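Feature request disguised as a bug: please show the residue count (313) next to Transcription factor domain-containing protein in the output. Example input:
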Amino acid sequence: STFEGALLLDLFEKLSKSASAVGDDKHTHVAGAFALVKLRGVESFTAQEIAAVTGLSLNGTLTALSTGRATDTIIRQIRHHATQFLDTSDPKWKLTGLILEATDLAASVRHGTITSTEKISRNIHLDTELAAIAESASPFWTYTSHPFPNADPKGALPAGLPPTYTIYPSRTIAQMWNVLRLTRILLCEEILASLALTPSSPSTLLTASKASTTIHQMTSEICASLPHMTHCSYAARHKLLGGENPDKQHTHTVPHTLDVYVMIFAIYIVAWAPHAPLQSRDWGVTQLENMAMHFGSQEASVILEVLRRQREG
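Example output, currently without the count:
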C-alpha cells in the first residue's frame, strides 16, 4: 500500500540519519503519508488498516525525535482513533505512548522551554514508567536465557558479562524490548548530563548512581540479545541454510538478515552511550563491523561512520 511503501522507504532513510546530530532534515516519505492520512481523515481508517497507520504514527514520532521537533498533532489523533481497535494494555502500546512523551520532552529541551530541574524530573518520570512496563511485560513479551557451552564465548559478549544470551519468540518482541532499553539509556544519559551542571548533593548523587546502574543494566541486556541474531558459530547457527558450516563461507537468509537489521540501532546506542562500560562500547563497535562485513549491511556501515565522526569530533 501507499502507507506501507512510505514506511519502508522511511525506515532506510531514518536508519542512515538517526544517529547523526539533530538537524533540519526533511523526512519526505513520512510527511507525504501523513498528508494522505489527513486528506482521508483519521476516523475513516478501519480495523484492517489501523496497523499500518499506527506504524506511521510511530515513525512520525521517531522523525520528530531525530529532528528535535514536537510531534505532529495527527499522531495523537491516530492513537486516539486506534484505541477502539487495539489492546491498550499491550506493553507495545504503552511503550509507544511513552516514546511520544519522550519526543515532546526532547523538543522542549532543545527549545529551552523547561528548566534543568524540570528536565531531570521528567526524564526520571519517563524512565520509571518504562521500568514499570518492563516489570509487567509478561505474558505479552517473553524471552529465555541460555548459557554458552563454555565460559568463554569468544567475543560473542563483552568481557565481564556472564556467558549467557537471550532468545526471543520473534524479532518483533526482541525489537520492542530493545527499544525500551535504548530509550531508558537515552533518558538516563540525559539525566547524568543535566546533573553534571547542577550543584552536588546527597540527592543528586543518588539519582546519578541510579541512572548509571540503569545504563549498565540496559546495555548488558541489549548485548545479551545479539548473539541469537548474529553469532553464526553457535547461538545463531540454526538460522543457516541446510546445516552449512559456520566456519566456512556461508549464506544468510532474508529472515536472518532482517534479524540483524533490527538490532543495528540498539547496538549503536551501546557503542555510543558515554556512561556505558568501555568494554561494552568497544564490543558494540566490533559487532557493527561484523554486521557490515559478515552480513553485508550497508546500514551498519553508515552507523559505523557516524560513530567514528562522533569519536573524532
